[in-house]
């Protein structure tokens, strides 16, 4: 008896069956959902962050009338109001912690009407050394007279003596605002 040899050949690549197509489509769908989810996760925080701070208030309160530093200096001279300057950075944890305390203080909002209010962030920080009387730490709050001179004696009385212009709460800011008005005059509410 002779056996016929059977030639066995492997079949050429076959088209995937319906089950395989479903797996391939399912993987593509999953990849699409994962990509969409990751895009959304990275987009939402930036939209939420952008919505929490106006370009003018920078998180320190939109109800306050804010000025740029050059315009604020001119306004202080013409109105007779003292100028309050907040120097901060967008990445600073202490600055981020102070913002809601400051913005939520009705007393600060009310008293701010007696000042020309300026806040400068990041690249808007002035380069003049007069704005760093005891160091470049942040946040710093300085008070200027109507001639644009920094009042180095108006400091956070309850703060660290090494960082005289650093504030971590609304009460410290409010106390210094009241002291500034006593020293520099109240200005007027009208322009």
TrEMBL record:
Its EC number is 1.8.4.2. GO terms for molecular function: protein-disulfide reductase (glutathione) activity. SUPFAM superfamilies: Thioredoxin-like. Residues 38-186 form the Thioredoxin domain. Pfam families: Thioredoxin_7. PROSITE patterns: THIOREDOXIN_1, THIOREDOXIN_2. GO terms for cellular component: endoplasmic reticulum. It catalyses: [protein]-disulfide + 2 glutathione = [protein]-dithiol + glutathione disulfide. Keywords: Signal. PANTHER family: ANTERIOR GRADIENT PROTEIN-RELATED, THIOREDOXIN DOMAIN-CONTAINING PROTEIN. This is Thioredoxin domain-containing protein 12.
